[in-house]
Amino acid sequence: MSKLLIKLGGTLLDAPELRDRLAAQIAMATTRAEIVVVHGGGKQMTRYLEARGVESRFVGGLRVTTPEILDAVLKIFAGSVNHELVASLNRAGALAVGLSGIDSFLVEAEQMDPALGAVGRVTRSNPKLLDLLTGNGYLPVVACVAGGRDGAIYNVNADQMAVACAAGFGARQLVFLTDVEGVLDSARRVQPVLTAAESERLISGGIATGGMQAKLRAALAALESGVQEVRIAPGAAENVLARLLDGAEIGTRIVLAEGHVA
């Protein structure tokens, strides 16, 4: 079987009905590929912090992670969001296993910048645990928390976590299921296919900004790491995963160069 990594945005997981729909699709897809899931949870994190009067501060799109916020990262990312998704996947018939990068040094990181607190930059991905689980019929579900060899815990951007896991796992394809239709050009039209060079131009030209710029940078890093194809697609679309696996042009497909066949 080919290997596939699916990254789920936290917004998609916030609504139980949509989470269950996606879980059912992923569970069904495990008959077609060895799958690893990586998820975010930024929306849930912000809501949790706001309810406790804790202000979130962002620098370059990254949440400054104080000790108080790191405690919330563990409770929300590796706790409630991860376990609710695992429960949905198991209810759909999968054998899902909730993990974070801390487990068995799955994803190692170092501090990115002291000004950001416990925000981590991934330094290494160790795929043995993913291979062991998927090779025996289990579905790893990884929260975007990483560890250091010194026992430190880091909050890692979920897109970067997905790239690290996809590269280490040897995934042929990385699918970002998001709350947008795909990558837009200057006329606000979804681009069905982008090469690495075209993606770079969207970034340098200021057309892809914010979260989409981060997605494209992650996609380029994945291609450079050996992933053959990256898809950015709307997670709420009907049967989106099966259609993507069947080759349907949903969202945006990103490849190294024109004519590249994944």
Molecular structure report:
The chain is of the alpha/beta class and 262 residues long. The chain has 2 domains: 1-162, Acetylglutamate kinase-like (Carbamate kinase), CATH 3.40.1160.10; 172-262, Acetylglutamate kinase-like (Carbamate kinase, 3-Layer(aba) Sandwich), CATH 3.40.1160. 39% of the residues lie in helices and 24% in strands. It has helices at residues 10-13, 16-29, 42-51, 67-91, 128-135, 158-169, 196-204, 210-224, 240-245, and strands spanning 2-8, 33-39, 58-59, 62-63, 96-100, 107-111, 120-125, 139-143, 145-147, 153-155, 173-178, 193-195, 229-234, 252-255. Strands 5-8-2-1-11-13-14-12 form an 8-stranded mixed β-sheet, with helices on both faces. A two-stranded antiparallel ribbon has the order 3-4. A two-stranded antiparallel ribbon has the order 6-7. Helix 2 crosses helix 4, helix 3 (42-51) packs across helix 4 and helix 6 runs parallel beside helix 8. It is globular and about 45 Å long. The chain starts with a strand and ends in a 7-residue tail after the last strand. The model has no long low-confidence stretch (mean pLDDT 94).
List the uncertain runs: none
Q: Major sheet: order of its strands?
A: 5-8-2-1-11-13-14-12
Q: How many runs of DSSP E, i.e. beta strands?
A: 14
**Overall pLDDT confidence:** 94
Query: Describe the biggest sheet?
Result: 8 strands, mixed
What is the number of helices?
9
Strand coverage percent = 15-25%
Structural class by SSE content: alpha/beta
Helix content: 25-40%
